[in-house]
Design a protein that fits this description.
The protein has 105 residues and is an alpha+beta fold. The protein contains two helices and three strands, in the order αβββα. It has a single domain, classed as Ybab, Chain: A.
Length: 105
């Protein structure tokens, strides 16, 4: 009986691992946008949290340097936070939200 349960648990673990790998690849291919200043600054990151693009409204270039720097930081952090939430949701769906990942552990 224990042997049958162990096989079932191992099969579930393998399925979960396969799904996690598939989801990780999906996450890595995503592009997430963050913005600040009412959309005047936009940043796009990929699923590896690498900055792909940064768009700054030309009107902001006449503003205070510190204001512009803050807006850039805010929009990049927003993109990272969005990605973290998406990743948490997708990975949590696979493990059922359990810290150990597998039911019964």
């Amino acid at each position: 009986m224990f042997n049958g349960n162990m096989k079932k648990i191992m099969k579930q673990a393998k399925q979960m691992q396969d799904q996690m790998m598939k989801t990780q690849k999906e996450l890595e291919s995503m592009e997430i946008e963050g913005s600040s200043g009412g959309g005047a600054v936009k940043a796009v990151i990929n699923g590896k949290k690498e900055l792909l693009s940064l768009d700054i409204d030309s009107e902001l270039l006449n503003d205070d340097k510190e204001v512009l720097e803050d807006l850039i930081i805010v929009c990049i952090n927003q993109a990272h936070n969005k990605f973290d939430e998406i990743s948490k949701d997708k990975m949590g769906a696979i493990s059922g939200g359990l810290p150990g990942g597998l039911p019964g552990f």
